[in-house]
Amino acid sequence: MSTFEFTFLVNDKKSVTNLEEVLKSYNGKKINEESLGKRLLAYPIDKNESAEYFVWQIELEKNVVTDFKQKLNFDKVVMRYLMLLKEDEKKK
Predict the structure, then answer these.
(1) What pTM value is reported for the model?
(2) What's the total number of domains in the chain?
(3) If the chain, 92 residues long, is cut into consecutive pieces of 10 residues, what is the mean pLDDT of each piece?
(4) What is the CATH number of the domain that holds 77?
């Protein structure tokens, strides 16, 4: 399994449980969770001017990353996301 840093924006904290279920459906697991709180957005996204920011460290198989991202693109719960492969994983 590969380790990723997964940063995302949601409308409210209740939406996070839905996202955890999506991650589990792809046999991924959350290693660490950091909530950055509610912040104002630089520009409105779907008429929302603020969002909850989260940063997770997750483990996920590389062969399902594309499917996971595709699911996030069609999921209305996640407003925006960024998924980065951890530096130590790139060397392998």
Answers:
(1) 0.86
(2) 1
(3) 93 87 93 94 93 94 92 89 81 58
(4) 3.30.70.60
